[in-house]
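Batch 3, record 17
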Amino acid sequence: MQAKGAYPSFTSRLAFIIAAAGSAVGLGNVWGFTYVAGQNGGGGFVLIYLLALAFVAGPAFMAEMLIGRMGKASPPTALAKLQASTGSRLRWPSVGWIGLIGTLMVLSFYAVIAGQAMYYGLIALEGGFGGWSESAVTKLDADFKANPWAMALWSAAFMAFTAAIVSFDIRTGIERAGKVMMPLLFIMLIGLVAYSGHTGDMGAAVNFLFGFHEINFSSRLFLEAVGQAFFTLGVGVGGLMTYGSYMGDDVRLPRATFWIVAMDLFVALAAGLAIFPLVFASGVEPTAGPGLVFLTLPIIFAEVPGGAFVAFIFFLLLTFAAVTSSISLLSPTVQRLAEARVSRPVAACLMAGAAVMLSLLTVYSFAGGRGVYPLAAFGLNGMTAFDLIREGVSNFILPLSGLAYCLIIGWALKREVVRAALPMAEGRLFTLWYGVVRFIAPLAITALFIGAVVG
Ligand code: PFF
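Prediction for the assembled complex:
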């Protein structure tokens, strides 16, 4: 327990790294990466994604955590403090507020997908999937999606779980959840890769993920790769800024950033190596899209030895990955409400409730509203409310907020101030990161948006 009234903090450097890695490692790594890579031609996409991680999203990730540590408050308040220190007349807190809206947008679809993962985990626990026919699996998915109540209920269950953890103080809630779930997640993932290597076609998976195939370079492909890099690290909505505000000044940020990005990358690639060998061995298409995890994979689980157990482990892993991220998504709004003297449990329930309400849009997109395109009149035909929310947040809010963080650190704050906030960073490393945050990342993001508008 911490002294009452003190600003919350993690107990150690490691606790911070685990929590931040928990935020980064999420549905994006397993559900997102595999299907986005699968749909975009494998190796070439992975390469662009790696460059985006190293030169755009990674440096912005460190900038976001640093802003949190310097401001020691929720995102809008931390940004207001930094703004006041410079005398700038721009409204920095609005970036924080947009981020808070972004957290609810992410949670709204996160909850639905994680809810389905929990439901499938339960079915697997009861011995489901093992020996099922393909039509039984297809029917399960179709029935679930045809039943908005079931989807909404599972989303609410997932959000209740998230809110329960966030209700506690930082050390007993978020910190402990990460310390329990993250090691288990790694063990399960490594076990699954070993299983897939044994049972599936690892050669084809490696070739698919790392080999170069025909790739259609387009501004949209770049936008997807950069959007995925931001989403997977969780940069741009203030979750990391909030965790950053809870970290001690003894955390060596460049090193912590390196380890978190490395863990995140490891999980994405390992998830690919757990999933694709099975996909290739059973001869189904790797380009199934969002349905890969809930349709293609369960069909495969039905056929492989020990399928029910493998399915249970897989969906438990997905649920853990989702929870350690969703707690970081709920944290910024809860911290902001705490500043307004709302207690953590009440704030967590309120914001989880708001996320569940918003999740009904995704529920609707998966159920009755599959063919409903709300913004068709504005040239966004073919996009459901879910598509608009997902792409809107990961391809726009995240990179644009990331751009704002880079401009704040690289241009608005004085170099000496930023240097002093990173006392333990090695000189050359600092210069490199500072240069990237000042020039390369902002230019890359701007070019990307100009490309998207023109192309
Ligand atoms: N990084 C998470 C994932 O890959 O699923 C998603 C995420 C978490 C986005 C936290 C934003 C955030 F603040």
